[in-house]
Amino acid sequence: MVNWVTFLDISLSGLGLGALYALVAMGFSLIYKVTGVLNFAQGQIAMVGAYGVVIFGTATVLPAAIPAWAAVLVTVLLGVVLGLALERVVFRQFIGEPVLSVIIVTLALGSILEGVIFFLYGQNAQAYPGALTLGGQLSLPLGTSIQAAYAVAVAIALIVVAVLMLFFRQTVTGSILRASASDEQAAMVLGVSIERTIALAWTLSIAITALGGILLATSSGGAAVSIENTGIIIFAAVVLGGLDSIPGAFIGSIVVGVLQELGSYYLVGGTAVYVPFTNIQANFGAGFGEILPLILLLVVILVKPYGLFGTERIERL
Amino acid sequence: MPCGEYFTDYESRMGLVRWRTQKIALALGLPIPFIAPFLLGGGTVTLLTQAYIFTIAVLGLNVILGYAGEIVLAQGAFMAIGAYSTSRLLAVGAGLLPALAVGGIISASVAVGFGLPSFRVKGFYIAISTLALQFIAEEWFFVNPQLAFIHGGTTQSLPSNVGVVGPVGALGTTIDKYLLALVLLLAFALLSLNLSRTGIGKTFRAIHENDLSASVLGVNVFKNKLLAFAIGGFMIGVAGGMFGFQIGFINAEYFTLGLTLEHYVMLLFGGLGRVWGALLGVGVVTLVQDYLNEGLNYLADLTGTNSTALLPVFFGAIIIVVLAVEPKGVLAGLGKIKEYLRTWPFAY
């Protein structure tokens, strides 16, 4: 018999994980909408964000550490600078190049970032400074509970998502971003500087991706190489939600997060469920939780490639 | 083109060896790789063998990516499938060639399976469906001990002395492996060259350039894409099996996304869609990688840091620079220089 409290617990942490993925996924969708670049380096950028706090907040690489909150701020600023630099130095060269070139450039970029992190820290997990790690459990109604660090990370993620949504809907800059995403030519005619918009989109995208990486790391107590896998898992989220839809990316992330957590609990190891009416345990082995979203991804690509909210691309000769 | 030689019929125009210079070059050049292992040291022979094997894999990638234009990011997974299948068949004594062939066929079927989404979508979607395959293979399938009944264990040792077919014609020395890799490479290079000259290759190119136009002109796009996946997947699988046999030991860690990227560097550096580009790319990149590895190891010993982790950084930088400066690869760049010198000093 399924224990409902456990089920709610797992689903809840799945929702939380989804909210954390949402930041990375929205970074991806934003860039795709505005510039048409499919960024395969999202996972590595998130990892750089996660390790950035370790670089600045602890004295492992730099001679002295700065306070934890400042380290987070510096890392997000680093994301902004990285976004500007990448747009200016790398991606501007590839405007109008075929999709293949751009995809491979992002893959190469991912491998560069990964190489730098591995150079600095090897493949070991690094603990976060004490101020960023919270102990204890937070009790919620219906007998469920969630780790405090996790709850804080999720809360921040949700606030950022809400602010971003408001930014896109309510501010002039947000409208400019949406306008250039939907029709670049028309926006240009109306006096929008596409150059500046693209630069803004890159900075925003990389900053929120880095923040997503930081929050993923705080929710698990420290930066780890496994954050890199987020880059592949969010593809499941953005494809399910529809590639060019930012709310779609959010909803897709939630679905993927819940799926991953349920999969890791109910289909892996000793807690796995039994196949109905048999004595066989449905244990698919370690790491299957992360595989489940990818299976969903393959199914979505086969059945409904434009996702739930994406616009179907109609091609003409 | 040399002066005074011209084509009088279609066959000689489309021939692989067309001019007298080329005939002489072939007669002089072909024996060199066959004699080389008897003159070179063991280390160099092993390095060359590995380069030949990677060339086969890159040629397979070239069929899918260069000819048909589908972005496949599962190079590592396809090679792993070929390697593990070959290992299992060698263990039951099937002989090397049947084992390689079956490994190739299994790899080809998986490639076709993951090419199925190309019925409705293209480009990016194929890239992520194959990336998902790579992730599943690397992070779960091949490292999962519960699935050992399929793949036979994450780490396996391959027999070092096996027959070519069944127990007949045993081979196992470094030179045997070298010659076998060379023969396979020549066979697959010839296959690729011929593929690009025949109707199938032209159909692939039409799909690459504009699949919608191709389908309007009556090309069955879906069937031809799957065909490209099958041919390419077969070659990559055979290369994987041969790779396993050459080093005599396989581990899931060999077949990561990093391997995929390495092969992309090789293909893009040499020139996408050209057999000679693949050969040149693998040659240059293998040499550079060898030197870089040595240098970084030296640096690591000197400074006490793990600078060997910086190798992907160099590869990433090479890809970006090549794509920004000469997207068609070094071979196209050399062609430009040749054209410039041919007409110099009167360019017009």
From TrEMBL, chain A:
GO BP annotations, alphabetical order: amino acid transport
Transmembrane annotation, as ranges: 12-32, 44-62, 68-86, 98-121, 148-168, 198-217, 280-303
Predominant location: membrane
Membrane topology: Multi-pass membrane protein
Signal peptide location: none
Cellular component terms (Gene Ontology): plasma membrane
GO molecular function: transmembrane transporter activity
Family indicated by similarity: Belongs to the binding-protein-dependent transport system permease family. LivHM subfamily.
Name the record gives this protein: ABC transporter permease
UniProtKB/TrEMBL annotation, chain B:
Principal location listed in the UniProt entry: membrane
InterPro entries: ABC_transp_permease, LivM-like
Membrane topology reported for the UniProt record: Multi-pass membrane protein
Membrane as UniProt keyword: yes
GO cellular component: plasma membrane
GO molecular function, one term: branched-chain amino acid transmembrane transporter activity
UniProt signal peptide: none
Listed transmembrane segments: 24-45, 51-68, 89-112, 178-195, 226-252, 264-288, 308-325
Location in the cell: Cell membrane
Keywords per UniProt: Cell membrane, Membrane, Transmembrane, Transmembrane helix
The protein's name in its UniProt record: ABC transporter permease
